[in-house]
Amino acid sequence: MKNSIKVERAIKNITQAQLAKLVGVSRQTINAIDLGKYNLSTTLSLKIAHVFEKNVNDIFQLEKSDWEKS
Amino acid sequence: MKTNYLLPNQCKKIGWFLFIPGFILGILQLIFEFKFDWLNIKVFAIYDPYFSFANNGITSHNLFFHITKTNALDEILGLLLIIGSIFIALSKEKSEDEFISKIRLESLVWATYVNYAILALAILFVFNISFYYVMIFNMFTLLIFFIIRFNWMIYKLKKSIKNEE
Known about the structure:
heterodimer, A: 434 Repressor (Amino-terminal Domain), 5 helices, 54% helix, globular, B: alpha+beta, 2 domains, 62% helix
């Protein structure tokens, strides 16, 4: 799954730490999502979209590899 | 998502306070096999078998729900280690969230693999009384492996973030 959190953070001018605080997770978690290392939950993706005042689809997109069997 | 199967964060400190003396005394006790006489007490036993060749004859009994005597040191050390490591392993992190939960699960699976791989090797290659010591260690190593691996992963994450700043 791709995401544009880095871009959205730049637009809103907020750091990883600030975003982490706004959605109630640790700084490590936002960092891991930024790097694409962690597939976040629906609740957290909705919260992040809420902070950026966008739809979840605008921030998170499926990739081809998401359709492959794990 | 709320997790209700973990202990509060403060329990972690209590865990270390119980675990460290239990661990040090436990290792020393295994090496030097000392006992404190004042810990000889009467205890209630669900099952109390006894077998001896003393006094040129065999004495034995097989008693259930019986009051017997024991030295309580190993009971105390065992409980210190179990309660201590449960408290350390299963207390929430200061910022417990879904990503930490994932690392927690991965570490528990990893610790289970490592613990039983070592036990399997010990079953194959360790014999007689030595295997008794393997079993003593194996009572506690699953959680100890988990604690090491989980904290190592958290440490690595924190460090990688510091490097970015």
